């Protein structure tokens, strides 16, 4: 993955063809055949350009980072080095969970460009599937598998302190993306910010209430400190339902450009929090033909199963490797009884971290800078605001009272108790 010769330039549909033709690792994925070449730009418009490239003989995806935030423009500069961290994270996470991470074919550090596997239809972005009311029978199993394997194997439960510190140091370079997270998740929603927005005028008072809620601010300050200070594992850093592509039997995690060594609960919480947002959005997508009640129950079951399967897989990996190289809990110190207690305490803290981070991610998606299509695709602003308000009220409760929840079942009950 060494840097290529030359200098950075943003590619378009025309110049991308010349780039591919000059890059053997990409040409080979197209069978060195440019017959019926098709290129389509499919980026969501927030940060990067993403191109799907297909020919009669093959396919791939090209992703290129820009030196600014695409959805805002050059007024908000952003290091294009994020592509480097995305590429090495795809490789590292793919090492531990190849079934759920797309393969990287090529990386050009100077051009901030990644060539990777094209996840062909029927793969779609999970968020779009949730809006459409599609059930994914293997989703909980697959995401629990991905999170347990990637988080465990990049933590001190598996690695030596020497390896861990080296990896932490490597990822410290992803400073700007971490700073962006700190700003948009832990700071902007709780103060006046030019980038904040909400479904106005319906949620104006709700957004103001967040900024005046001192108890909420104290809780989010604790979470921000954990995010900044705790290098627990290599986290994806932006694991929402827009960072997952799915079919009935395939689940692929994409876009880890925010990757850093941070608290495990940030990934778990971000994912579960986005499922909760999907749940609260369903009433806005209901119609006379489908009240979405059954689908809402499926989402709740998926939330429940995801955590329970994650806990089972994570603790099993830990038990299987307790005599290995991991230096967090040395077997010479922790006999079976103490080891069991250590696991119990660790998982309990991880659960509460996940609830807190998930709640913070929910709040920022309602009154912060970047909203979610789950709500944004609800055309009637008043109905949309009603769905968002219920999600926001639950998120505030979850953030402030997370330590009182001892099981995921209790969280599910609390979600269902949110009044209409």
Automatic annotation (TrEMBL):
The keyword ATP-binding applies. SUPFAM superfamilies: Protein kinase-like (PK-like). Its EC number is 2.7.1.100. Signal peptide: none annotated. GO terms for molecular function: ATP binding; S-methyl-5-thioribose kinase activity. Gene3D superfamilies: 3.90.1200.10, Phosphorylase Kinase, domain 1. GO terms for biological process: methionine biosynthetic process. Keywords: ATP-binding, Kinase, Nucleotide-binding, Transferase. Residues 39-278 form the Aminoglycoside phosphotransferase domain. The keyword ATP-binding applies. Homodimer. Belongs to the methylthioribose kinase family. This is S-methyl-5-thioribose kinase. It comes from Papaver nudicaule (Iceland poppy). The lineage of its organism: Eukaryota, Viridiplantae, Streptophyta, Embryophyta, Tracheophyta.
């Amino acid at each position: 993955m060494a840097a290529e010769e030359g200098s950075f330039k943003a590619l378009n549909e025309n110049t991308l063809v010349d780039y591919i033709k000059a890059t053997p690792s990409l040409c080979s994925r197209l069978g060195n055949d440019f017959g019926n070449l098709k290129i389509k730009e499919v980026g969501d418009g927030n940060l990067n350009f993403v191109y799907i490239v297909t020919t009669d003989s093959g396919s791939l995806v090209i992703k290129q980072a820009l030196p600014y935030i695409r959805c805002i423009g050059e007024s908000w500069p952003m290091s294009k080095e994020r592509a480097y961290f995305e590429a090495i994270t795809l490789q590292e996470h793919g090492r531990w969970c190849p079934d759920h991470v797309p393969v990287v074919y090529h990386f050009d550090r100077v051009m901030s460009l990644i060539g990777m596997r094209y996840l062909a239809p029927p793969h779609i972005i999970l968020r779009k599937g949730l809006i459409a009311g599609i059930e994914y029978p293997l989703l909980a199993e697959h995401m629990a598998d991905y999170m347990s394997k990637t988080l465990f194997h990049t933590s001190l439960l598996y690695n030596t302190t020497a390896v861990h510190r080296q990896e932490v140091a490597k990822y410290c370079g992803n400073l700007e993306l971490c700073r962006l997270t700190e700003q948009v998740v832990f700071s902007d929603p709780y103060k006046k910010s030019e980038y904040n927005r909400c479904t106005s005028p319906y949620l104006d008072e709700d957004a103001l209430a967040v900024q005046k809620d001192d108890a909420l601010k104290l809780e989010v300050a604790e979470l921000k400190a954990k995010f900044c200070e705790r290098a627990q594992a290599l986290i994806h850093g932006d694991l929402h339902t827009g960072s997952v592509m799915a079919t009935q039997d395939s689940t692929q995690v994409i876009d880890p450009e925010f990757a850093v060594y941070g608290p495990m609960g940030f990934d778990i919480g971000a994912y579960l929090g986005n499922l909760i947002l999907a749940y609260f959005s369903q009433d806005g997508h209901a119609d006379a033909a489908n009240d979405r009640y059954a689908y809402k129950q499926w989402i709740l079951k998926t939330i429940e199963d995801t955590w329970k399967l994650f806990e089972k897989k994570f603790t099993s990996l830990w038990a299987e490797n307790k005599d290995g190289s991991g230096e967090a809990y040395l077997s010479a110190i922790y006999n079976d009884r103490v080891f069991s207690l250590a696991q119990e305490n660790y998982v309990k803290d991880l659960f509460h971290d996940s609830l807190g981070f998930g709640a913070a991610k929910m709040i920022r998606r309602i009154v912060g800078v970047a909203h979610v299509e789950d709500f944004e695709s609800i055309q009637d602003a008043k109905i949309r605001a009603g769905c968002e308000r219920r999600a926001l009220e639950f998120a505030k409760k979850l953030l402030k009272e997370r330590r009182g929840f001892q099981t995921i079942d209790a969280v599910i009950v609390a979600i269902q108790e949110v009044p209409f």
